[in-house]
Amino acid sequence: MAVTLPYNQNPFSTLPILPAVPKTPTPQTQEEINPNLERVENKVRRAIWAMRIRLHDLFSDFDKLRSGYVTAAQFRRCLGSAMDRTMVPLTEVEYQVLVKFYDTKGNGMFKWTSFVDSIDTVFGAKKLEQAPTQYIPSPQEVVKPVRPALSPASESVVFSIIERLKSYVKHHGSDVKSWFKDFDKHNNGFVTENQFRRGIPQNLLSLEEEELLLYRYSDELTGTVNYFKLNTDVNRKVQRPKVNDAQLVAKLNKISAAEHIPVGTEALLIPTDIHNAHQATLDEIEDEIKKHVYKDRIRLVEFFKDYDRHNCGRVTEAQFRAGLRQASILLHGQDVKTLLQQYQEKDGRVQYRKFCNSIDTVFTVSHLETNPLADVQPPPRGYLVKGYNKLSVSEEERCNQIISRFRKIMSTRRLLMAPFFKDFDKYMGCLGRVSRSHFSRLLSTMNLDVSEDDLFILFKKYEDKTNGNINYMEFIRAIDPETYDHFSKPADATPLSEPKTPQQKTAQFTEIFTRLQTYILSQRTRVSEFFRDFDKLRSYSIPRHEFIRGVNRIGVSLTGEELEVIADKYKGSNGFCKWKKFESDIEKVFGENHLENRPSIIPKPAAVETNPFITGVELAEKETRVLNILLKSMREHLRIRQTSIKPFFKDFDKLCTGHVSKTQFRQCLTYMGVYPKEEEFEILCKRWCKKPQNTENKSDRICYLAFLNELDIGIHEHEEAAEKERIEKKEKELFGKVVKAPKVNRVVEVVNEEEQKIHESVRVLTLGKNVPLNNSEVQKLMKRIKTKVKTERIRVIDFMMDFDHLRHGKITRNEFRRVLKVIFTNLTELELITLETLFLSPTDPRFVEYVRFSDTIESVFTMKGLEQAPTAEPVPFTDYCFENGDSLDFETLNESKDQSLNLSVSQTKYQKKPLNNEDILKSVLKRLSEKIRQRRIDVLIYLEDFDFVNEGTITTNQFRSVLNTLNLSVDDDEIMALAKKYAVNRSWDRIAYRAFVADLQKGDSVERGAELGWNDNGKGKHAFELW
Fold this sequence. Notes:
There is one protein chain. The chain is mainly alpha-helical and about 1050 residues long. The strands form 7 sheets. It has a 3-stranded antiparallel sheet with strand order 3-5-4. A two-stranded antiparallel ribbon has the order 1-2. A two-stranded antiparallel ribbon has the order 6-7. The longest helix has about 30 residues, at about 705-735.
């Protein structure tokens, strides 16, 4: 907020006071007194453009016959509805000017169509389909200011005011926008005149000066003031005079050869066309276009077809240039002229189809249908990629010394240069280029300091002459070939070698053929698909070059020499190769062919290893000991840090091949905090290096997956030992000693057949496993679990499947234990350990096979696999037991057959007679019945509150809770007697409460009948029913 100061304390009071500016009167020029038509129309256009109004819609409502004429009153009404919204409506004189001009017939009818066409020019030209070459003026050209400009004296005063505002803003550290932003709610840069006056700091400007600013920055149509424009004028700096390029070039010519242009000033001192001073020939221009088209896979003819409506293969020169621009082919004017000289006809049209056919030769050969045996090869890498430049002998020698020094630094410091260069390359389109300034800046940032002469030698070596930028990809490949050189190997880098002997050729063919078989077996590829299309006559022989092409299409990277070796092996007559024999030999990796004709042949397994993670050579005994010590220290280090190290390797393995380079492998070890010695690192690389596909070459790729697997196995073994020690410690705390069952290898003698089956299942479970419980305890444990599952209808697998997201039938030990504690709450620690041990996964000791556990427990319901054996009869589960493991005999239980009081069948079938607690049951029923009769309690309502599904049963705990709530307390013996009487299942945890209430009401009615003298005849029974 601006600080308010008295005028005499204004810091600008020392400034010279400007002479009083007379208030600018409302202009009353001769043009305003007698306005002409153009001035009035400009005023209307300005208002219409500001409010984006289409006058045609207003006038057409009054012209029902679409004659193009309206009356003068209708014209005033339509135009007034639009202009009255502005701050400066039309005057009567201006209306008369318009009416006089557009009253073409002199009958008082106004030709509104001509008026609307004249006004709508501010929105663009009309009927362009009839005149497509018509010039379309911009709105700024059409809308001309109607307010007269300030006089030179007023302009000088405005300039002085702006200078005063600049001093004020600089002194107070404020901004012109901050004066008015509170009034500008929409932040569009406009405020009203009153808001503009209020926003200007007090005592800073006089009223006349404010009026002058209002006249300069206000819009008389909208009545607003553009304070953004005022802020721009106040903050505008003095523009520097434009430097003549000719002077810069002259200055550049004065620089001697020993001097260098300062880095970062190339754009100022070097002319823009210095890199293109050489006049390119037609072949050079077409080569550049071919590279661009091949890189982006562009069909160039598609950009010219739209201009060739008659499909004659010719377009105009302007259309030819437009097609090149649409294809993003940016050529200099001289290059385009060179193309036009070749493809332009005498009438000025350009043969674009001939030009496109010449460019498309980079993809294929023209008229291939007339020569189907023509060999089409892709362009070599050297043709598409720009390498480094050639230097003089002395400069080349110095450049090699610089690169050698950088290589040593990269090997010692293990730097990755590409990410730093790519940050600057993003702004240039990721073309592998950076500017000279960026290149020198990055060298200084990475402490790769070089002298000025050496820096310019590097510039000269790796400079792209087309644009003057530096090819940093070639630079980092030169200084760090171990990391980046394997990404791009030139096609012409095959070294020359001496002729090989027949024995060497045979060994080379065997090695190549094994590589092909390994790839075919791993990818399950059908070889015939690569040769069948070339063999039109099905003669099983194709030309040599077609055979080489088919072998190359299999997908294995082979050199030209290796392809020639395979072609020589299967060559036939007349320069043809027998591809069918090649297919038969290579597909033997899948097994013997034509076994249907030789049924006695026993197929042999494939002798080719398809595992891509086979690692290197066998280690010596001393190296093995060093490796084991190093791995042990790594495992201990990782166990303490609890770090997942696989993401470090995956950051380098973008293609998920499972391998990294040696440099990347060492960097990952550094991230882990492991710093092996050079000898130890070489042993690690030797142990887990990728098995080379060629015996003559050494592999520098490390299989990190095999390395991590070896580390994980050792860590898991340590965890298992620690878990075993923890269990033994827990057992000692519980029992004072470790109880271990011997390995069971015999069948326990049993009395009957059912027990023999149970013992047999327990024997199978515990076979070869050390469990804390003996066989009889395991048997009782399984009976207890099965009894609970059977009586409560529990599906164990539903609880455990929630932890198995991949549905592979396994969960971890902790998850298995959590589920058991939820379902079976009374299991002890030893019982949990026993169940984990019995159903432990044989392949991975960290997991438990919960599906096998569920099948074992849920066998009490039915037999698994009945869909495959529909005639089998499931054996019902009858071996129930108590919670302590004792067997439960239900033969002593008799179902009650009391059908009185209209009890449903589902209720009466659950009633049981007491076992040996008849006296207790009678006593508690009599006592509860008496208390209910005295207190008039409806017990059924309280019990039904716990029966959410209205099935007539509640749990024993809920039953006892209701009795305690009603002050009908019962002891343990009484609740046990009631549970045995009214239990609906064999575990006595569900009570048929309706039968209990019916017995209470029955006892109450008998007692009341005895008090009233009722007998046991029909009349008394009828009275009871009425009551």
